[in-house]
Amino acid sequence: xxxxxxxxxxxxxxxxxxxxxxxxxxxxxxxxxxxxxxxxxxxxxxxxxxxxxxxxxxxxxxxxxxxxxxxxxxxxxxxxxxxxxxxxx
Length: 89
Prior knowledge:
The protein is mainly alpha-helical. It has 2 domains: 9-41, no CATH class; 49-86. It contains 4 helices and no strands. The model has no long low-confidence stretch (mean pLDDT 85).
C-alpha cells in the first residue's frame, strides 16, 4: 500500500529527532514502527495473522453497529451468528 502523508508540527520534530539519533534509517521505518505500536496498544498481534484478522472483523462489526444505531436500524447478533455469517470457527 502506498500512502502520502503530510507531517508537521510536533510529530515532525519527533520524526526528525528519531532519525537524527539513528534509531531509524528512514521516515517510512518510523511510520511503520508507529503503526505497529498503535496496533499493539489496541490488541492487534501482528505475529498472529488469524488473531489480527479476527480483531479487524470485530472492529468492522463495531463500526457497523455504531452506524446502524445512528440510523435507527439496530440488529444485534450473537457471537455464534457472527462466526457463522463470516465463516469463523
